[in-house]
Amino acid sequence: MIKPAASSEKKGAVLSIKTTIQDSIRNLLKKGMDQGVFDAVLIPMRVPAGDSFSYVLIKDKSLLNNAVALPPIMSVQGAKAVSSVTRLGNGTMKIAAVMRPCEIRATIELTKLDQVHVENMTLISIDCPGVMPILDFIREPEKAIKLFENATKSWDDTIMRPVCQICDKSSMIAGDLHIGTLGTKKDAFFIISNSKKGKDTLEKLDIPLNGNIDSWQIKVKENAEEKQKKRKKTHKDLKTKIGHLDNLLDTFSQCINCHNCMRVCPVCYCRLCYFDSDKVKHPSGEYLRRAKEKGSIRFLPDTTLFHMGRMMHMSLSCVSCGSCEDACPMSIPVAQIFSMVADETQGLFDYVAGRSSGEPLPLKTYKKDELHEVEDAHD
Amino acid sequence: MNRKIGVYICECGPNISEKIDIDKVIEAVRFLNDIVVVERYKLLCSEDGKKYLTEQIKRYGLTHLIIAACSPRDHQLTFMEVCENAGINPYLFQLANIREQCVWITADKEEATKKAIRLTKAAIGRVRCHSPLEKKEMESNPDVLIVGGGIAGIETSLQLAHSDRKIYLVEKTASLGGLIKNFEKTYPEMHPCSISIQQKIETINKTNNIKIFTDSEVEDILGFFGNFEIKVKKNTNEKDSVSFNVGAVVFATGSTLFNPNKTTCYGYGKFDNVLTALEFEKMNLSGEIVLKNNKTPKSVAIIHCVGRTEKGYCSEICCMYSLKFARYLKDKIPDIKVFNFYSDLCIPGKTHQKFYEQTQGKNIDFIRAKNIEIAKKGEHLTITYNDEKSGKNNYDVDMVILSPALEPTADTARLAEFTGISLGDGGFFAEEHEKLGPVSTSSQGVFIAGCSQGPKSIPDTIIQAEAVTGKILSSLIPGKKIEPEVKVSFISESFCIGCKTCLDVCSYGAITFNETKKVSVVNEVICRGCGNCVAACPSGAITLKHFTFNQIYQELKAAIQ
After folding, report:
1. Contact (Cβ atoms closer than 8 angstroms) between residue A256 and residue A304
2. Which stretches within B383-527 are classed as H helix?
3. Contacts of residue B518 in chain A, CB cutoff 8 Å?
4. Which residues does chain B have within 8 Å of residue A269's beta carbon, measured at their own beta carbons?
5. Which of A113, A114, A272 sits opposite B495 (nearest CB)?
6. For residue B497, which residues of chain A lie inside 8 Å, CB to CB?
7. What is the DSSP-derived secondary structure letter of residue B453?
């Protein structure tokens, strides 16, 4: 298995901030477009009505003035945008995509299923303080933007989504370039290269990779360790809450079967979900038979089965981005449950979804020597 | 559809009737939906039994048939034939195995009966979802491509040509004969071998229906059993390529020697007078065994098992030909001293032990040694080693012959990829089954013979060549149509997400990718219905006919309800 480059091998540059970090990022992207390093930029932008943010593919560089590299919410998971642009082939256009680390990881995960083509794309991530719950934002967008700005400065995650509060990969670099804001002075930020493509890009932009990124690495490590502790504790508590079938049924009993969680999931790749297909629709006789067996059956049927099916299907590729929980109208902690299951299933294969395009999907890899613990459990 | 299912329980003489309460089984399934008749019979696979079933099917106008009897391995085909003759599609039948899986695993009649009921119900649940499948027939080409003109390829060609098959024999070097043509004699009988191989080559040249391509390589193999398209190109002229069609392919690409250069301890390539087995065979064939300085050697060391640790297997023939070398040396230089350094002597077979005993004798020593190292000392070569008793030891000799492990030729991996067969241990072609299918491969119609399958002696190679001949003659019959597998997988275009996972897991090369539609497509003729792709498909787009999700679900549901 190809492991990602150790962080000590990563090279970076220290760039100064003249006005704001957002402006500096915009200028960098503009320079890239000016010099023909990028033909277009895929980046979030605030929608004209002001109450949301959306990914836009910018070809007119003056529009970059409205781009926001780190919006307070994740209305559409970036990997879904990348997939829309490139699923049918990468074309010849060189695109810079600016996304959060979990969005990049979902993108990398999709490359393994041929659902995105990033050969001509430069994936740029940014240190992520978390994402606000979408409902909190919509209620009072202006106030939310202020809150988010302050939280980004102080790196305070209390206003963020629960799954962001336990994210230990908020600075993980899986793409080509990464913008580091942790461990810097107010008037500077880091740009870190993680691939040959990233290195070439910076070379073309005349940014020499000779900066000292130690302070960033120290801060990232501290942050990740702290979040990891929190993550473990949250998962442990969650496990006691949902750990048995009855508890699980209780947890999902609020589900209204809208399947929003599936629709917004960046790595839910099926064309048609099995649970939306005719395969789960039965003649009434079958429901009567089930009702007879258990005394009654609930409608719509197969609610918990849907979530368990999705878990079986997705947990190895889940990047814990939280989109599902954001989309749940019943506020079921889907993302937290998925992050817990994902940590366990991915752990079995020493796999981290989206960490590196060099790591093949565990279910596509045959190894003679693995999963003995599962075999032993049945001896 | 109005189903009329008939259930027949076989007593299998006393086998089933004494260990299962068959009446209880009948009672348990009699009133299930669609069941029109449930009966017991003493022996359904007998001629009388088959006649009885045929009459019953006609009498009740059955649309589906369930038989609760033995393992499908025994009589599935028997009963499918009965269905066919009685006018039911043979795939609207299901066999419940209540003998091997019930009575033969427990003495407890009650338990066996309980399980028999579940299995019969499961079969009924399943058969309700069965769809009729139609047999396909295809014209086949009886011609055969043989790759490799060594003993395996020559023998297979001759055998098949003898049965009037058209053979295309492709050899990458300039002449036929393979490694054997370098040998003066073969063990154990020590008969001259160049004559017999020469005779065979002459026969081949004279045989009209063998087309020989020397200095040539197979450039591409497309298609499937019965219909392969072959492209062969001349090594000497890139543009000179020919295409033809065959029905079967035989890989007889032989083996090559492990390069002793890969281990520094033998000084191969560094010191004069350190030869590989093949170099020594050639020298011996030339008539004179001499040192670099043209002097006759007075002492020779033969090192067995060179590369065995690196390769991880015993090459079977090295000990024997090393003994042959000792004989060569003694014949040509009677007072020579020969040392055999071995780690384990491999001398199996009914004649080889005698050969070994006859080779032992004056001035031929066998030394069990470890950690062998060769160094140069003036005109001599010093062999330092650890023996079993006295520890570190050494000998000076004039010449060293290395007996290296056999390894597959460079073409092996390329040819395997063309045909979608896999490589086994050591990078040799993998056989379909180590014991039960030693010359067939995972690709139907692709066979392997000789050392390309693993190191082996000349007799074993000929046995394989003959086995391949038998396999081809009995499966690829001129004028007889071939029936590809019916239970194949099917990819739904609208569900396929184009991730190509199925291409990676298909062992038969049956799946291709349609770049225009961005979906995977199964070639139904190549597909063997193993189900790998169905299990691996992340978006549930693949269905295996006769093992559909619903069929398995209904079967399971009925079994555990």
Report:
1. no
2. 411-419, 458-475, 501-505
3. 88
4. 497, 499, 538-539
5. A272
6. 113-115, 269-271
7. S
DSSP reduced 3-state for A273:
coil
- Helix or strand holding residue B248 (H, E): strand B248-251
Q: Do A270 and B498 touch (CB under 8 A)?
A: no
Claim to verify: residue A48 and residue A153 sit in the same structural domain? yes
Interface predicted TM-score (ipTM) of this complex, two decimals: 0.76
Q: What is the pLDDT of residue A377?
A: 63
Q: What is the DSSP string of A320-354?
A: ---HHHHH-TT---HHHHHHHHHHHHHHHTT--TT
**Residue A112: its chain B contacts at CB < 8 A?**
499
**Nearest one of A204, A199, A224 to A12, comparing CA atoms:** A199
Let me know: does A42 contact A96? Beta carbons within 8 Å.
yes
A378: left (phi over 0), alpha (psi -120 to 50) or beta: alpha
Chain A CB within 8 Å of residue B32 CB: no
Same domain, A132 and A176: yes
From the CA of B296, how many Å to the nearest CA of chain A?
53
Q: Kindly report each contact of residues B382-387 with a partner whose C-beta sits within 8 Å and lies 24 or more positions away, as own/partner.
A: B383/B301, B383/B303, B383/B339, B383/B341, B385/B341
Q: Respond yes or no on whether the N-terminal peptide bond of residue B188 is cis (omega within 30° of 0).
A: yes
Number of domains into which chain A is organized: 2
B538 and chain A in contact, CB less than 8 A: yes
- Give residue-wise pLDDT tens across range A268-304: 988 888 899 888 888 999 899 889 989 999 998 889 9
Tokens for B222, please give them: 């497309």
Give the mean pLDDT of B106-133.
Answer: 97
CA dist., res. A72 & res. A75, Å (int): 9
Terminal Cα distance for chain B, rounded: 25
Answer whether residue A2 is part of any domain. Answer: no
The CATH code that applies to domain B144-254+409-475 is 3.50.50.60
Phi, psi angles (nearest 5°) of residue B253: -85, 0
Alpha-carbon span B517 to A246, nearest angstrom: 45
What digits encode the pLDDT tens for the residues B281-340? 999 999 899 999 999 999 999 999 999 999 999 999 999 999 999 999 999 999 999 999
Boundary residue ending a domain (A229, A264, A294): A229
Asked if A113 lies within 8 A of B495 by C-beta distance, the reply is no
Residues of chain B neighbouring A88 (CB-CB closer than 8 A): 518
Please check whether residue A279 touches B, CB under 8 A: yes
Q: Do the Cβ atoms of B115 and B97 come closer than 8 Å? A: no
A86 near B CB under 8 A: no
Domain boundaries, position A353: 233-377
Residues 6+ apart with CB under 8 A from B220: B229, B230, B231, B418
Cis amide linkage into residue A300, ω under 30° from 0 = yes
Residue corresponding to tokens 């995650």: A157
Which residues have CB under 8 Å from A369's CB, separation 6+?
Answer: none
- For chains A and B, CB pairs below 8 A equal 41
pLDDT tens by residue, A223-236: 999 999 999 999 99
Same-domain pairing of A48 and A144: yes
pLDDT confidence band for A3 (50 / 70 / 90): very low
Q: Where are the domains of chain B?
A: 5-133, 144-254+409-475, 260-405, 489-545
If 0-12 CB within 10 Å is exposed, 13-18 middle and 19+ buried, where does residue A205 land?
Answer: middle
Task: Point out the residue among B497, B498, B550 whose CB comes nearest to the CB of A270.
Answer: B497
What is residue B405's DSSP assignment? P
Residues A346 and A365 in one domain: yes
Asked if B528 and B510 count as a contact pair (C-beta separation under 8 A), the reply is yes
Domain B489-545, CATH 3.30.70.20 — does that match? yes
CA angle A35, A37, A41 (to 5 degrees): 110
Q: Are residues A267 and A371 in the same domain?
A: yes
